[in-house]
Amino acid sequence: MRIRAIETGVGIFMLAGIFSLILLGFKVSNLSLTPNHQTYTLYAEFDNIGSLNDRARIAIGGVTIGRVSNIILNKKTYMAKVTLNIDNKIDNIPVDSTAAIMTAGLLGEKYIAISIGGENRYLKPGDTFSDTQSALILENLIGKFLLKSGASGAQSNTVISGNHEQF
Fold first, then answer.
1. pLDDT tens digits for 38-80?
2. What letter would DSSP give residue 116?
3. Which run of H or E residues covers position 143?
4. Contact, 65 vs 59, CB < 8 A?
5. What does the alpha-carbon distance between residue 125 and residue 15 come to, in Å, rounded to a whole number?
6. How many angstroms separate the CA atoms of 94 and 32, rounded?
7. 14 — alpha (psi -120 to 50), left (phi > 0) or beta?
8. Residues 96, 129: contact at Cβ < 8 Å?
């Protein structure tokens, strides 16, 4: 009888662990078991979206207000056109607000952060953000740093050798 109780306890513990892993999987993949809220659509165009993907969160001041629903390439401008689904409750985003692609956490999850502007007019469904900031790509920064440090080292050698020849 006591062995049966231990086996039952272990079984319940295993089921709880499996259930927890399933919930963790939903959380990590930005899926939800709850129905979607009513949303409206805004657009933003970026030069480079980095690793931003569908279902990425959209936040104002760290509070999630929507999700990215689609990313396509604008064939005329060669920019990434991102479709943003914003919660209907957030209907007062000024027209001069900025949409920027940011990185959250150690894993580098990309999301869109909206910085509020000061205009009294608000974006309407179907409008496009006029001011955007593309994703910060670490490889590009490292490359620029290496090129800049290499160029300044070469330039300083030229100056030194130039000064040396003058003396």
1. 999 999 999 999 889 998 999 999 999 999 999 999 999 999 9
2. P
3. helix 138-166
4. yes
5. 45
6. 29
7. alpha
8. no
Could you give the CA distance from residue 71 to residue 125 in angstroms, rounded to a whole number?
17
Confidence of residue 164 (pLDDT cuts 50, 70, 90): very low
| Distance in angstroms (rounded) separating the CA atoms of residues 97 and 130 | 8
Is there a contact between 13 and 71 (Cβ–Cβ < 8 Å)? no
The pTM score is 0.68
Chain segment 79-127, per-residue pLDDT in tens:
999 999 999 999 999 999 999 999 887 777 899 999 999 999 999 999 9
Find where tokens 């805004």 sit: 42
Phi/psi-derived region of residue 61, left when phi > 0, alpha when psi is between -120 and 50, beta in every other case: left
Cβ atoms of 39 and 58 within 8 Å: the answer is: no
